[in-house]
Amino acid sequence: MTQAEIKLCSLLLQEHFGEIVEKIGVHLIRTGSQPLRVIVHDTGTSLDQVKKALCVLIQHNLVMYQVHKRGVVEYEAHCSRVLRMLRYPRYIYTTKALYGDTGELIIEELLLNGKMTMSAVVKKVADRLTETVEDGKTMDYAEVSNTFMQLADTRFVQRCPMVHTPENSDTGPPPPAPNLVINEKDMYLVPKLSLIGKGKRRRSSDEDAAGEPKAKRPKHPTDNKEPIPDDGIYWQANLDRFHQHFRDQAIVSAVANRMDQTSSEIVRAMLRMSEVTTSSDAPFTQPLSSNEIFRSLPVGYNISKQVLDQYLTLLADDPLEFVGKSGDSGGGMYVINFCKALASLATATLESVIQERFGSRCARIFRLVLQKKHLEQKQVEDFAMIPAKEAKDMLYKMLSENFISLQEIPKTPDHAPSRTFYLYTVNILSAARMLLHRCYKSVTNLIERRQFETKENKRLLEKSQRVEAIIASVQATGAEEAQLQEIEEMITAPERQQLETLKRNVNKLDASEIQVDETIFLLESYIESTMKRQ
Amino acid sequence: MAGNKGRGRASYTFNIEAVGFGRGEKLPDVVVKPPPLFPDTDYKPVPLKTGESEDYMLALKQELRGTMKRKPYFIEKPEEKPDIERYSKKYMQTYKEEWIPADLKSKNAQGTDKVSSLINAADVLKKIEELEKKGDGEKSDEENEEKEGSKEKSKDGEDEDNEDAEQEDDDEEELEEENDYVNSYFEDGDDFGVDSDDNMDEATY
């Protein structure tokens, strides 16, 4: 775990779960797997607090536990899973695009709560949907259940590992930590529930307005005393499936940019056909015959078989090698090459970074070295048609930022510098890693700046919140225009200006975080697929 | 002999042309300090993407941040006991759902009892002090005000008032000593005896 990753994890945990959970989480990420007593001792927090923090982290799938020999239970944190918290808005928005508001809320509840039973999810989502719908109409549980089952069928949600009860129930004292197992085929099996009911609308008197005193919190009415039918079967969001979807999206849009809309539709059809047959980390899809592809094209597209064949040939011959031809049966067998596709996307990202940072001539040199693999200083000047001084300057700039590296080829065994070739080369994997590290640092800086801006203007923000609350309460009791005007003038014009600036800045910083995360996704996918291949 | 050819003259062990710049050419200055924190860039960054999906994700992100803070998973740092229990605190607490698993619940209940009992004890002590002061006259009123004044100053976080804090501690010790000698136990002078009769009604515990 690099320092940048640890710092980013610390900021994310602090924002979402508070300081205590952050302290425990960061300690586990830094030091690896540890038993409970050691955590308490090293972090200096009380046993109670550590237990609570670990509960929260395990609930959200950020920490796993394992029983080691001699009955010691050790806890281990997953840094990469913590970094996923940056991507939550993207997951939720994708579900909204695919399954509408119902799906969006289901995934949101699952992400916010870590693990939930299906009945709890359905109930909460129905309540939330009922509130947004107009008075009188309620959301039926059945509709929400249907969407949930659709999500399970397409594997966007999966079951969590369950407690394993062995055959012989009395094997002495229970183990120190439950052993959780899950069967492959059970992972997407939806339990047979008959959830009948409608969403409840929360009465407006129950809602808390900021600053309103509440002497006594009404006790939650425990309406259903009967046991939950699917107790013990917990569901979580399947992030790998989302990543698969994002990857497919990226490939389709890349093809659309490079060629045209029709070819991107063909690629999309191919990807859809191989969604369930190919595992998420396979380097290729299953070979698909041209006839199958023709049959599964979307209905609106009426291109003839020959045109489809021509498109497929074009795609297979493209130097980017997204699509490959693997045989001739069935009119031609075609596969989508994920490794090459991700490598092309990562390379395009690198080129774009260089172009925006150093200029288009640098980008030309970079692409040249990428294409020719190894070039000497003199050859770079000649091929790129850039004057020597400038070429040297640009090469050294890129070298100092580690986008390009030098390869030494000695002519003599004593490696004398005067008798050695120095060749410039691009190592995509290491450049991608370096860029990824920089992305983590950027997001850390963005989050810190946002927190700094908010802290600077804390007083002003609180004041504006109070004024809004006053306006709301005065409006509720019926007030005239003059009174409202007077209250609004409590915030002076320069203060309003300051608030506007603050809001704009915070929005910009947030939007930047989301977009840096897109780059992080591409680079991480590329690095992961390359490492698996090796 | 052959090695002395270049005596007095600098010579490189490798072909200087290969590196890219000629001899005697002006090299950039040696850098002796770290690079500036916000260096000027030749190329300004590309503007952010805008569009419906970006706006929606932005709104989602900010909403999620707020929602997370209200969930029971957000564990707040336990704050130190304040000097004076503020009346408004009781009404500005945000209520969170109960989420703690069963085996941790009991410990929590104990914790709250301790805190509430401490607060009660502090209240009791203060009540006793004030009742004592009424009998003692102006001098103790000034002391009380000074104590409260120093308490408020220290609450604002100014470090200059370390001395006041110490003074406050001293005052507290003195006053607490007087409280420990609950009237019925210690007969010291006529004044005490006179006052104790008056206060006995209220100070029975």
TrEMBL record, chain A:
Record's signal peptide: none
Basic and acidic residues: bias regions: 211-228
InterPro entries: POLR3C_WHD, RNA_pol_III_RPC82-rel_HTH, RNA_pol_III_Rpc82_C, RPC3, WH-like_DNA-bd_sf
GO process terms (BP): defense response to virus; DNA-templated transcription
Keywords: Antiviral defense, DNA-directed RNA polymerase, Nucleus, Transcription
GO cellular component: RNA polymerase III complex
Pfam families per UniProt: HTH_9, RNA_pol_Rpc82, RPC3_helical, WHD_POLR3C
Gene Ontology molecular function, alphabetical: single-stranded DNA binding
Residue span(s) of domain DNA-directed RNA polymerase III subunit RPC3 winged-helix: 350-426
Subcellular location: Nucleus
Family according to the record: Belongs to the eukaryotic RPC3/POLR3C RNA polymerase subunit family.
Subunit comment: Component of the RNA polymerase III complex consisting of 17 subunits: a ten-subunit horseshoe-shaped catalytic core composed of POLR3A/RPC1, POLR3B/RPC2, POLR1C/RPAC1, POLR1D/RPAC2, POLR3K/RPC10, POLR2E/RPABC1, POLR2F/RPABC2, POLR2H/RPABC3, POLR2K/RPABC4 and POLR2L/RPABC5; a mobile stalk composed of two subunits POLR3H/RPC8 and CRCP/RPC9, protruding from the core and functioning primarily in transcription initiation; and additional subunits homologous to general transcription factors of the RNA polymerase II machinery, POLR3C/RPC3-POLR3F/RPC6-POLR3G/RPC7 heterotrimer required for transcription initiation and POLR3D/RPC4-POLR3E/RPC5 heterodimer involved in both transcription initiation and termination.
Task of the protein: DNA-dependent RNA polymerase catalyzes the transcription of DNA into RNA using the four ribonucleoside triphosphates as substrates. Specific peripheric component of RNA polymerase III (Pol III) which synthesizes small non-coding RNAs including 5S rRNA, snRNAs, tRNAs and miRNAs from at least 500 distinct genomic loci. Part of POLR3C/RPC3-POLR3F/RPC6-POLR3G/RPC7 heterotrimer, coordinates the dynamics of Pol III stalk and clamp modules during the transition from apo to elongation state. Pol III plays a key role in sensing and limiting infection by intracellular bacteria and DNA viruses.
Name the record gives this protein: DNA-directed RNA polymerase III subunit RPC3
UniProtKB/TrEMBL annotation, chain B:
Lineage: Eukaryota, Metazoa, Chordata, Craniata, Vertebrata
Name of the protein: DNA-directed RNA polymerase III subunit RPC7
Highest taxon of the lineage: Eukaryota
Chain intervals with Basic and acidic residues compositional bias: 147-156
Bias (Acidic residues): 157-180, 187-205
Stored PANTHER family: DNA-DIRECTED RNA POLYMERASE III, DNA-DIRECTED RNA POLYMERASE III SUBUNIT RPC7
Family membership: Belongs to the eukaryotic RPC7 RNA polymerase subunit family.
Sequence segments annotated as region (Disordered): 130-205
GO biological process: cell population proliferation; transcription by RNA polymerase III
Keywords annotated in UniProt: DNA-directed RNA polymerase, Nucleus, Transcription
Entry GO terms, CC: RNA polymerase III complex
One Pfam family here: RNA_pol_3_Rpc31
Regions annotated as coiled coil: none
InterPro entries: RNA_pol_III_Rpc31 (IPR024661)
Source organism: Fukomys damarensis (Damaraland mole rat)
UniProt subcellular location: Nucleus
